[in-house]
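Researcher: Quick test of sequence recovery. Tokens follow.
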């Protein structure tokens, strides 16, 4: 009844943006991501009839019932589906500072479902783990797998065909550098941001209209290891997502002044001949995609940028792993 798991975070190259069913976390559109080696969550789960309720420790601190409610709701689903009543103590540790504003829900929920699966010997397949992780947080469905991953939108109303799977490609010498910026802005959660966009943004229809083409081009560019196309499409798709959010009412603006400064700087680096591309999620931080051979030049350039507090160099990372204790 005790197990641990490690799952790595992922960053979307084609974004998941908008739910068609919030309860089941079913997306309006498919997405493609890269799993990262340096950002991960280690989770230990212990089920026992001695525990009166579920308890979650995050980076050593016991969280409030409100903060752990998404975890409890997912465990309720497990208890219902697999007919058991024990509660759990969960200890989760991120390899990166939670306060840095980096999304930890993807690695967090992927590690949680893998450790529950192991602790209770449920023998779920990777595909089933992806479905379960999706119920915690949409992007977590992709963190079950390593490397480049696609989460299909699916068609079924019950969500049984909305899960992720890896995109087969040989090892690739790319790096993603996560830039932690001086935020200056209060974050709007991804859930609230995407919901408001779906409900009020006149640009959301255009987002959905172009998404199948973006997915198809990205899939092909990854398979043929065409770095320029992957980078250009990744940046285009991220800016398009932010454009839909900016056109929501009230506007969802994730960028801080430091984000805008960084976007200009990346464009400048490219004009100077350094092939580097950016993406951004539901927050002010910027992530850069670069080939290994240009990484040291990029890291030198990063040192000149005062708005960058910290940079974390990541390479393609593995899928989830778990062990009994
Ligand atoms: O899984 P969530 O609810 O954290 O949503 C993630 C949304 C984005 O990070 C903006 C895009 C994505 O595909 O990861």
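Model:
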């Amino acid at each position: 009844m005790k197990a641990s798991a490690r799952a790595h975070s992922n960053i979307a190259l084609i974004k998941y943006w908008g739910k068609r069913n919030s309860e089941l976390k079913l997306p309006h559109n498919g997405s493609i991501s890269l799993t990262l080696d340096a950002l991960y969550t280690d989770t230990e789960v212990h089920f026992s009839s001695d525990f009166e309720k579920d308890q979650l420790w995050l980076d050593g601190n016991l969280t409030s019932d409100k903060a752990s409610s998404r975890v409890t709701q997912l465990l309720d689903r497990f208890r219902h589906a697999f007919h058991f009543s024990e509660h759990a103590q969960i200890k989760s540790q991120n390899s990166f500072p939670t306060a840095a504003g980096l999304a930890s829900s993807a690695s967090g929920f992927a590690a949680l479902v893998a450790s529950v699966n192991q602790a209770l010997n449920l023998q779920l397949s990777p595909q089933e783990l992806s479905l379960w992780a999706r119920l915690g947080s949409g992007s977590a469905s992709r963190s079950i797998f390593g490397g480049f991953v696609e989460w299909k939108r699916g068609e079924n109303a019950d969500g049984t065909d909305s899960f992720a799977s890896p995109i087969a490609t040989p090892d690739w010498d790319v790096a993603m550098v996560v830039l932690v910026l001086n935020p200056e802005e209060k974050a709007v959660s991804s859930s609230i941001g995407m919901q408001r966009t779906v409900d009020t943004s006149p640009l959301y229809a255009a987002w959905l209209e172009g998404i199948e083409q973006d997915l198809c081009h990205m899939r092909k560019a990854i398979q043929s290891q065409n770095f320029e196309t992957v980078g250009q499409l990744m940046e285009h798709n991220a800016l398009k997502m932010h454009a839909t959010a900016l056109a929501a009412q009230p506007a969802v603006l994730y960028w801080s002044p430091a984000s805008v400064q960084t976007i200009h700087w990346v464009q400048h680096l490219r004009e100077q001949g350094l092939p580097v591309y950016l993406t951004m999620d539901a927050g002010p931080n910027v992530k850069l995609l670069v080939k290994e051979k240009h990484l040291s030049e990029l890291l030198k350039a990063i040192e000149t940028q005062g708005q960058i507090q910290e940079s974390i160099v990541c390479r393609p990372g593995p899928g989830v792993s778990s062990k009994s204790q």
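Helices lie at 69-82, 105-119, 126-136, 190-200, 204-223, 227-246, 257-271, 295-302.
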